[in-house]
What does this fold into?
Amino acid sequence: MSIQITDIAFTGTPVTDMKKARAFYEGVLGLVPGLKFEGEGYCWIEYEIGPGKNTFAISTGNPQWQPSPQGTTLGLEVADIDAAIAHLRENNATIVTETFDSPVCRMALVADPDGNTVCIHQCKKK
It folds into this structure.
């Protein structure tokens, strides 16, 4: 018997400074916050992305879950990668890997304020 996975429930990224993280994810990337959970020393903010309303979350307060550039990467599909990277540069985002081509896409890697990797991605037209 195997597990029957039906969807991805959410993708989450740990952050250390919620104010800086929100400035990046909301102010620079333009994500709109949805659900927000707060407790003593803990905060979780969700963003719904795309037509399928995939959930991405940022969170503080869990000592076992720390930011890392070697962790899971959030991949964000954009309509125009060149315009997106120009916008990120204008907002002083850290470009980790310049735009490069693969057989199916163009992508670049940027870092959030904690060094977590975010992939800016554009599929090539078929």
